[in-house]
Amino acid sequence: MAAHTVRVWDLFVRLFHWLLVVAFVVAYASEDDYLDIHTGAGYTVLALLALRLVWGFVGTRYARFSDFVRPPGQALGYVKDTLSGRARRYLGH
User: Fold this and answer.
1) Residues 6+ away with beta carbon under 8 Å from 52
2) Tens digits of residue pLDDT in 58-70
3) Are 46 and 71 in contact (CB under 8 A)?
4) pTM flag (> 0.90)
């Protein structure tokens, strides 16, 4: 049986994650020597987080916070199931 790929996260979420990594690395690398670049990277991180916050409420199914935020008891049960090797698999977070 051939395996197939299921794309869960939309283009915005994929770009958000990679741009966040790039902006963080740029901010970290330019900490002391290039203040303008460092500041720009920091504002980029802030803008990305603000956009992701909005997208978490209005975005596609798997991008929404309601899809991956679970009650504490349910999350704890999942951790216990994972440690015992019998956790269910889910698409998304």
Assistant:
1) 13, 16
2) 999 889 988 877 7
3) no
4) no
